[in-house]
Amino acid sequence: VLGNEKGGAGKSTVAMHLAVALLNFGQKVATVDLDVRQKTLTHYIENRRVWAKHSGATLAIPSHFSVARGSAQSAADNEAIEFTGFVDALSAVEHSHHFIIVDTAGSDNHLTRLAHSMANTLISPLNDSFVDFDVFGTVDPETYSVTGESHYARMVREARQQRRLADGVRMDWVVVRNRLSMLGSRNRQRIVNGLNELAVRLGFRGADGLAERVIYREFFPRGLTALDELDARTLGMQPSLSHLTARHELLSLVDTLRLPLDDRARQRAVAQAEWIASRGKPLELHNVIAE
Ligand SMILES: Nc1ncnc2c1ncn2[C@@H]1O[C@H](COP(=O)(O)OP(=O)(O)O)[C@@H](O)[C@H]1O
Ligand SMILES: [Mg+2]
Question: For the whole model, what pTM was predicted?
């Protein structure tokens, strides 16, 4: 699950790149777009479909679900419609795919909360700015040391508690710094220090994520990513050195996520699920939701 209450943090960008990275590893990947208004991930994937047809390139495409926005009169009815849309998407792929990547909206709503409480891994991209830091925690204006937790951090804490009660799984929370500038700065060092403090307090792992690169945004209209084949036919242009650097950066991010990618890791995940099930705690998504 990609989550951060702040819009523009890089959730949809990371969701798409992660989907392509996992597809390239031969995994069966499903994607679910819960941003019922912006639908960035949905558009990204649609663009990829169109470009594959147009260019004749073979592009792996995830099984994608865009949860439709409820258009009933009452808010409660809309919540119910959207909830059903999400559950239907999960039910369609939970037994047939290795990974389900869920992109959430930059707002606190019922779908965002539900997704957070179901995550095995929560990935929160974060820009190197105290304005973005502010949804995680507050800092002292003099010393920049952390003084408290903010609303998004509290929401994740609650979601984690729910998940643990539901089936005993401890969600792994990874905060990924995004749009990093190449230049060191005092601001950057203060953010790093603040994140290190918060990591202990909130229980997340930090990842040195992605630098600010044009390549992460220029391919959106073609639905491509830095991880696609670096030939002129696929790209519709000559690849550059920036592709290689970005590719390296993305693979190291996937590595940091410690996802169950090989057969042994998957067997361990299955064994763990069976062990939890044998304690009389069902692990089916339906049951997680039912809690
Ligand atoms: N590493 C990056 N380098 C350059 N631009 C980026 C990077 N990550 C995200 N962006 C751009 O930042 C904006 C917000 O990203 P997006 O993925 O839509 O965030 P969110 O889904 O959290 O709202 C978009 O214009 C996107 O192209
Ligand atoms: Mg988005």
Answer: 0.91
